[in-house]
Amino acid sequence: MNAIDWDLVRSSLGPLLDGLLRGTLPLTAVSFVLGLVIALVIALMRLSGQRLVSGLARAYVSIIRGTPLLLQLFIVFFGLPSLGITLDPWPSAIIALSLNVGGYASEAVRGAILAVPRGQFEAAMTVGMGRTTTLRRVVLPQAARIAVPPLSNTLISLVKDTSLVSTILVTELLRKAQEIASPSFAFFTLYGVAAVYYWVVCLVLSFGQTRLETRLSRHVAV
Amino acid sequence: MSTPLLEARGLVKSFGANRVLRGVDVAVPSGSVTCLIGPSGSGKTTVLRSLNGLETPEDGTVRIGDVELDWATRPDARAVSRLRGQSGMVFQSHNLFPHLTVLDNVTSGPVFAQGRPRAEAREEARALLARVGLADKADAYPVQLSGGQQQRVGIARALATRPQVVLFDEPTSALDPELVGEVLRVMQSLAAEGWTMVVVTHEMRFARQVADQVLFLDGGVVVEQGPPSEVLVEPREPRTRQFLQRLLEPL
To answer: Is the pLDDT of residue A68 over 80?
Structure first.
């Protein structure tokens, strides 16, 4: 028996693409955007210089980084109902992934903000900008460039981490592969196709990262 | 004698156990140029940065125009920024915003901070760039300019908020020697136009030609002050003499 069933490969390409386009990619995109918002808030809390606020942010990052993503997902989906909060698979998935991305990305954002030279803050202050304006007009545009490589890592990890939500019945790429493979036991074939899909997405994202880095550095180095 | 435009009294500042300012007074009449000179570690830059609250002295007062701050009362951020709004600053390392064009650097204060109409600010910024000899560089990015050009943009940016006083923190110290002149000439012409300027500098020739008064600092105090013809030419204090001697004969 051949390990790879090429007819099955051909017939599964469409359904798996569907799982990618309607599951994996939207999950990734929405969780990443929400995660970045959380990350910015957490990073600013940690840099606030107020002990309680930065302590809370520190605790958040510690918990997110110190526990498995799969467990975080289970707590939201299987655990919260015992507190009277019952969520559907999709919202559960997005909440767990966003919180997780927020924890990791906040460290990248914080590092990037700290990497903007002190003189930039001072120059902004001396032309009259307040904290918020300085952040928006001077610090974040420069921090964004610095944060691209670490945030790209987070994004690429996220693409693959979305596969964990197959365990709470969200139909995405991996779950689709499982569904198709189960009746025929053609796991090697289906997981192989799914792997190629994940890999291609990550290749495209890596390419995008390079383009973005070039674009953002164009005025910084000659 | 009329009231000085800028007046600082009794500035005291420590970094940890190191007392860098031990009661410094500065009085700057409107339209005059004051040069702060002294050896490294004398406190001259700290004095300058205390005038706009980039440093926070423990004691003393600073007044520019009718905005006064008593450092002993631990003023809040709003009070400090009100004082800061009275002055503009030119930094040793220019600190231009690298992600903005030259023109946007100059309009950053008027537009982002003062909320002035963009069109008006741009027009004024173009005039300022012409003023510092960089009318053709409006759309360039800072990285595309020479050090001297960057510093002249820094000057235009500092002037754009229409400050009462312009503070210069060793504006030529980071420049290659052949680029120093173009920056000093711009500063000289600003002085001639009547801008009130406080300049921390090691350029003794500039101080002698342009300054109305020179303050020599050492060990966190003003050791000697007066017109450059006295302080720089016939200093009374041995420490001033020693300092000037070392500048003339470094070896």
So the answer is: yes
